[in-house]
Write a structure and sequence with these properties.
GO molecular function, one term: GTPase activity
Oligomer: single chain
Organism: Triplophysa tibetana
Strand order of the largest sheet: 2-3-1-4-10-11
Protein name: Developmentally-regulated GTP-binding protein 1
Pfam families: MMR_HSR1, MMR_HSR1_Xtn, TGS
CATH class of the largest domain: Alpha Beta
Helix content: 25-40%
Number of strands: 14
Keywords: GTP-binding, Nucleotide-binding
Order of helices and strands: HHEHEEHEHEEEHEHEEHEHEEE
Amino acid sequence: MSLLQKIAEIESEMARTQKNKATAHHLGLLKARLAKLKRELITPKGGSGGGPGEGFDVAKTGDARIGFVGFPSVGKSTLLSNLAGVYSEVAAYEFTTLTTVPGVIRYKGAKIQLLDLPGIIEGAKDGKGRGRQVIAVARTCNLILIVLDVLKPLGHKKLIEHELEGFGIRLNKEPPNIGFKRKDKGGINFTATCAQSELDGETVKSILSEYKIHNADLTLRSDATADDLIDVVEGNRVYIPCIYVLNKIDQISIEELDVIYKIPHCVPISAHHRWNFDDLLERIWDYLHLVRIALVWGSSVKHNPQKVGKDHVMEDEDVIQLVKK
């Protein structure tokens, strides 16, 4: 049985299983097995075909990196071109962007790298198309912009999130508040500092047993799920802020636009008409958590003024300017 068949079999069993306290233990075990298989799928054994592929080895430059992700022909390339003046082959049909195209913008003194990643299709995390390489680059980003066509169902949003989740990318989430430490002996020492609605000692031990972990200290400091525990054990998850960019608002009504503005983490725009770019750039700045720091004039720097970090050693009579967010 192939890896994909094993994954499909487990996902099918999970879909058939009712979620309740009686099945929590079994579902936790299935989730752990599924996570292990997906890890193996993402990082296959052996060296064949393991390279990043042409156009995907992009050097990280500047103060931050943003990845533009979305289904084909939703306007990613147009948005990037109008933001940074970078040409990426644009057409009114699907699958025109074949490689990662880097661009750079400067905003509030920060140099921000923009990557227009090829269109992601459902099943990319299963090795279809070039999705695996695309999301490998997405994992290195400081911020992800999921570009959506406002005229198409927000089901696209769910599909892309599912693809990213499959690669261990967690959007707009904090790492689980779980203490986990392996040890050589003593069994599983399980402690919860608050009430747990899903995990109990039996479920925890079964999940850890799937990873052949029989000695460890585990502390749950919040109401955790089996997925939270698996994420901590896997140890390869990345937690990235995300903005949902709803493009083509020139084709909807004002009333529909008012509804869109209430969706969390969303910014409506028209890439073609360059509408609402100011709001998008300001939201990007907020989500990157960038802080403009010191400019120094004086003998301690080569250029006047020069941007320096917090470890810079000042000289007598140097002048420093502090710039906050």
